Amino acid sequence: MNITSEALQKELKEFFGFSSFKGEQEQIIKHLIRGNSAFVLMPTGGGKSLCYQLPALLMPGCAIVISPLIALMKNQVDAIRGFVSGKEGIAHFLNSSLNKAQVQEVKEGLLSGTTKLLYVAPESLTKDENIALLKQCKISFYAVDEAHCISEWGHDFRPDYRRIHPIIQEIGEAPIIALTATATPKVQSDILKNLGIPDAKVFKSSFNRANLYYEIRPKVNAVAEIIKFIRNNPGKSGIIYCLSRKKVEEMAQTLNINGIKALPYHAGLDAATRAQNQDMFLMEEVDVIVATIAFGMGIDKPDVRFVIHYNMPKSLEGYYQETGRAGRDGGEGQCITFYNFKDILKLEKFMQSKPVSEQYIGKQLLSETVAYAESSQCRRKILLNYFGETYEKDNCGNCDNCLHKQAEFEGSKYLQTVFQLIRSMKEDFKSDHLANILGGVTTAMITSYKHNKSRFFGIIPDKDDKFWLAVIRQACVMQFLKKDIERYGLVSLTDKGREFLAKPYPVMLMEDRKFEEIEDDDDDITGGNAKHGGGGGDQALLSMLKDLRRDQAKKLNLPPYILFQDPALEDMSIFYPTTYEELKKCQGVGDGKAHKYGKPFIDLIAKYIEENEIEKPTEIAIRAREDKTKISLFILHNTDMRVPLDEIARMKDMELDELYSKLESIVSAGTRINIDYYIRQMIDEDKIEDIYDYFKESETDSISDAEKALGGDYSEEEIRLVRIKFLSDVGN
Questions:
Q1: 205 to 22, 23, 39, 179, 182: CA distances (angstroms)
Q2: Is 398 in the same domain as 413?
Q3: Where are the beta strands (DSSP E) in 321-444?
Q4: Tens digits of per-residue pLDDT, 95-126?
Q5: Would 535 disulfide with which of 9, 221, 502, 609, CB 3.0-4.6 Å?
Q6: What's the angle, vertex CA 301, arms to CA 300 and CA 307, rounded to 5?
Q7: CATH number at residue 657
Q8: How many CB atoms lie within 10 A of CB 36?
């Protein structure tokens, strides 16, 4: 089948109301209509759906669209029916959400030839009865949407996607169009190979989304920062991504408590609730959807103005696709991500139950997200390089690193050192191993290869492994080096790198950004013992509050953190509490602590407001959820009954580590708790005394500082338990 450009333009206008095609849409559609297979790599918002929807309407037969999410299917079917008025049966979806009558309606539409587009999940495609049904139909082509799900190297790997090609062969072969917004060269190769279309024409659009602003923030007081950000962007639609269903629920409820219309979306909700919440977001009945990665694939909302990641995603593909849901209309799109390396360690821990090969892949993908977060280079440059595209500009002007550039240094001698090391080792090691050699870090792998005897080991005494890792990362982006993805990231020289080594020339480099090691992130949104800093409040007031805390602590002969921890002071510098009730809304401040230590602080704040003629902000309080209060009461009741902590955790289906965090929040907020019965069973008396004495003298309650000071005989768990006892005894 052939069609002229004029005729195609006419059909585009008639069906979709558009006057012209975007990018390569017209070439893709013509290629498919002629009966050829295609691979389409196009950023979110680039118009992928049209590339198969219009051909389906024009070609004889029915197009089978293989799609991963039921919500996406409904969204797409509703959209296509809206374009083609008076023909309800022109598009259908077939999945487990349909009742018998609806399934029969789909069958009738297919067999009568009315249906031009059938959306089906890969799991449904493999059912015998569906295969038998589709064998009776004329298939115009197969469209595999979100095709990155095929590859183990993709961020949403779905094993059922691997079975698509043999099922297509069983139903009846027809052209295949595979579409995705995110695929590295390795993932592209996987897709083409697995679908059996190695010679398909590849249509690849630029990955650059110039309207998107990228920023990485330290995960410090993150929930308060998110509320503040949304309040500063009133009426704008946004998505907040969290890794766990529990955090999604907590975040959505916290936003609502603080006057922000938000709904949760995750796989644990029933299908009707998910669909309803999604529709309310699309219809702008709520401003914010808080979601796991289950939300967003193919959701056609053009005016999402911000995408916030509460947790760093598992891969840059995932990050790119999720941020790509912002600003699809070409307008403003702010992409803010909160980063704490401890989140990465948690993700690695989750991988431990997976097969070794999956762990290797997962860890390498994670290492790329760490490199992206900690780098000082242009974010856009790093992202595009990851997807095999070169960004020529040195400054994009629309990311945090370009707007606030780090100091540069002349780095040619460091590049030469790295390249010489790689060449001497026959290009057979990963970047972290190379950085460990150059930084003089002794690991089991270093000693087993005897690389601690190399002349490169610790070659420049004042440059550590992190410095060298930054050099290697920048060399990769500059295309002096390349990583072999199929060999788990082994680093080798490119032709450009070899040319540089033969004839060096000046190259400017930057050190990576420094992210503070945070003791605990604010996963417990009622506060806790997190070590925060830079919460964005009134810095002059914050300085005065810290001075007051120090003076009051001296009078009472207590460590300063016993009175109020940094998150509480930072909230005070943002919200200006002048009553006990307002003070209790600050992080980690309960009723007892507010009344015991609060008066000098609220007096100082009241005086500061008056002297500086400050208008107090609209209340932005992160208040405790009702069920959190219930959990706290449950814990207090059971500790009063001397129930072992591991048993309390089991009763509430918690990890022990999570229970410790709850206990830390309880005592930090000013409530006394007695866990001596448990501590004395678990820890030797002399150890308890040593840890307790350490916290008496310490200026900080940091666990990592305590571990360093006390030495290797004291475990993190022992220190945490005794710290809970100390905070309860001394502070409450």
A1: 11, 8, 11, 12, 11
A2: no
A3: 333-339, 408-410
A4: 877 888 888 988 998 898 899 999 998 888 88
A5: 221
A6: 115
A7: 1.10.10.1390
A8: 16
